[in-house]
Amino acid sequence: MRQSTAKRIGGVVLALSMVLAAPMAQAAAKKAAPVKPIPALVQKDGKFALMVDGAPFLILGGQANNSSNYPAALKDVWPAIKDLNANTLVMPVAWEQVEPVEGTFDFSFVDALIKEARQNNVRLVILWFGTWKNTGPSYTPSWVKGDNKRFPRLTNKDGTLSYALSPLYETTREADKRAYVKLIEHIKAIDSGQRTVIMLQPQNEVGVYGAARDHSAKANAIMAQPVPEALLRKFNKPAGNWNEVFGKDADEFFHAWSIASYVDNIAAAGKAVYPLPTYMNAALKDPLNPEQAPGSYASGGPTYNVIDVYKAAAPHIDLLAPDLYSPGSQSYEATLNFYARKDNALFVAESGNRPTYARFIFSTLGRQGIGFDPFGFDYTGYSNFPLGSTQSGPEMVKPFGDLYELFRPLERVWPKLSLESQVWGVSEPDDHSAQTLDLGPNWNAKVTYRQWQFGMPEWDPENKNGYPEGSEIPSGGVAVAKLSDNEFLVAGYHARISFGAGSANAAKGFILDRVEEGHYDAKGNWVFERVWNGDQTDYGLNFAQPRLFKVRLATFEK
Ligand code: DGJ
After folding, report:
1. Rounded to whole angstroms, how far apart are CA atoms 191 and 245?
2. 176 Cβ closer than 6 Å to some ligand 1 atom
3. 42-83 residue pLDDT tens
4. Peptide bond into 92 cis (omega under 30)
């Protein structure tokens, strides 16, 4: 049947208006969507929170292996991040990959990374591998790496040339900064709506091995000049040149100041474009050996002994973070103590991925840590044993994934409590010794390890002093947050926690009033599952599996 012209025109107009209406409605909806605030690190009374989309967020991170920063490798990254139950992927972007030819930039990997992160529902922390990667320039483009004239290496004490670049040259800094700022401009252009990228790390493990500082004529001349005002103020020292003011520490402090100023300059330029929280990671100085000489560890990096130098030199760096590969709980905990400060939020920027490292999430959270980011999580088949796991597949991920499964539903709840209330957390020491939590004047708690779920180990009829199988390898921990005066949120694994009366309640009888097992829903509401009582609480709360409780404590008059 032939349509009349009017009908046909009417149909076209209707169709056209429908075609136009859809994008207009979409545009209106887009316009109406509230702008998500840019991530920020906030501080309140010496406590910190990383704000993401305007609310505290706990980074349950996984860092990919170094060479997984290409689109082809991403397919092997996402399944590991999923098994890990991570909410954040930490991934390098290298100067050599974005500016292979000077002045020509390629951000195709960043595009793929951000797109796929959104598809996988995780956030990103991006690491800039530039002038420094494990102190060396291996990730700088070829046109930088080989050009000692334009991008000078530093001079060792014996006059030989170091592998590392000197932080004293504007040419190097400006070239690095230009590429870094281009990266930030690109992130801003594609991500200021969704905020998939939540934090940045300009450079990776800065410093130098084999020397305490640059010993070139240029460096010597600067060292003979007065120490900058900001540093004198920080250390409350009278004016003088570097040796006069800092004596035996002068070389290391000078190098730390030089690197911190260099990276701060770059970070400031990035923040002027798009002010994401920015941190630097540290290759560690042995926390149990203060005599260790600079150069035998990465001298000039943000090691614990120069945190104050960094605080004075680098106001655009939000926090300094340890890379924890220290075998041994004493050493691990000592480092956490050094980096959890009133002026420095604790973030475990890297940790080994051996199973025994997983438990340190508890003591990180107990020090109000804003996140935990073990290293080497992808299924590319690579393992960095002996630093990390011998495994490179799901067996490597599981010990961390089990604990992240416990904390993932708390990714908003825990950091809010950490900022606004009080938190405690302990990890099983290598010697399995018991720990006490001082929960204030009213309550305390004892945490013990290698327990059965009932009774005492020595009751084992078959084997006196028999412990649960596998418990000789430390894996436990407990994290506690105060919900109200008498109520606590308790998360644990492979541990027993026994609450008791504190000094203010010493004259009274103690009772576990109510122990609820449950979980938090997506909106952050507590969902009650069941009450634990009887055998399940008579010998403390025993975490044979990762579990979450709300515990109410009470007393009775004696
Ligand atoms: C610390 C570095 O920051 C990482 O990139 C990596 O090289 C590990 N060490 C070792 O696997």
Report:
1. 46
2. no
3. 999 989 999 999 999 999 999 999 999 999 999 999 999 999
4. no
Which pLDDT score is estimated for 28?
A: 53
Compute how many other C-beta atoms are within 10 angstroms of the C-beta atom of residue 160.
11
pLDDT of residue 458: 82
Q: What is the count of structural domains for the chain?
A: 2
**Model confidence pLDDT, tens digit, residues 114-126:** 999 999 999 999 9
Point out the residues of the chain with pLDDT beneath 70.
1-32, 463-465
CB of 205 within 6 A of ligand 1: the answer is yes
Judge if 352 and 375 occupy the same domain. Answer: yes
pTM over 0.90: yes
Centroid of ligand 1 to alpha carbon of 134 (angstroms)? 7
Single out the residue of 140, 156, 396 nearest to residue 295, CA to CA: 156
Most ligand 1 atoms within 8 A of CB, residue of 350, 357, 389, 392 to mutate: 350
Q: 373 lies in which domain range?
A: 52-412
**Residue 6 placed within a domain:** no
496-501 vs 443-448, strand pairing mode: antiparallel
CA 451, CA 281: separation in Å to the nearest integer?
Answer: 37
- Helices H, strands E: what count in the chain? 16, 24
Question: Alpha helices, DSSP H only, in 421-463?
Answer: none
Q: Are residues 139 and 248 in the same domain?
A: yes
